[in-house]
Amino acid sequence: MSPTRQDAWSQDEDLLLAEVVLRHIREGGTQLQAFEEVGKQLSRTSAACGFRWNSYVRKQYTSGIELAKKQRKELKKQDDPAEREAIQEPAKVAAVQSSPGCEQGGTITFPAVMHFLEGLQQQVEVSSSFEEDRMKTSEKIKELEKKAYYLAAENERLSKNLKAIEEDYRSLIEIMERARKMVVLQDEDRQQKVKFQMDKNGNLERVEK
Questions:
Q1: Percent of the chain scoring above 70 in pLDDT
Q2: In 61-109, which ranges are continuous DSSP H helix?
Q3: For residue 160, how far is the Cα from the chain centroid?
Q4: Distance (Å, whole) CA 131 – CA 60
Q5: Mean pLDDT in residue range 101-115
Q6: Which of 8, 94, 142, 170 gives the lowest tally of CB atoms within 10 Å of its CB?
C-alpha cells in the first residue's frame, strides 16, 4: 500500500492535477476517476486530490473547464452511431434515388448504384481528411492547454517572487533608517561629552567629560 503524503502541493503537482481532471472532463470521465488517477501517481488520497482541486486549482482553470465541456459535447456527437446513422440514412436513400440512371418510379438501377458508390467513396475520402485535420487540431489544443497551464503557474511563481522582493526591500529600508538614527544619536552623545575651558593663557581648549 502506497504511503499517503501530507506535505504541501508543488506547482508541478497542481499542473498534473489540472491536466488529468480536464482530460477526464473532455473525454466524458468523472472527476472522481481523475482524483484517483492523480492520487496513485502522487501517492496521495483521492480525497486529498479532490480537496486540492475544489479549494484552489479549479479556480485557476475556469476557462479550461468550459473549453473541456464544449469538446466533450462535440466528441459525444461525433461518437454517437445512432445519431450519425439517423442523419446519414435519409441522405443515402435520397442520393441513390436521385442518381442518374434511376428509373421513374424509384426503381434503382445498376448505374445508379455505381454512381452512388462513387459519390460515397468521395465522401469517405473527404471524411478521412476531415478526421485527420480534427486530430491534428485536437493535439494542438492539448499542447496549447499545457503551455497555458505552465504559463499560469510561472506567472504565479513570479508574482510571489516579486512580492517577496518587495517585502525584503521594505525591510532593508527600515534597517537603513534605524541605522541612520543610531548614527545621529551617537553623534549627539559625542558632542554632549565635549566641553571647553580656558587655560592660564586665556585660550579655549576642549576637554573630554
A1: 67
A2: 62-78, 81-97
A3: 18
A4: 32
A5: 60
A6: 8
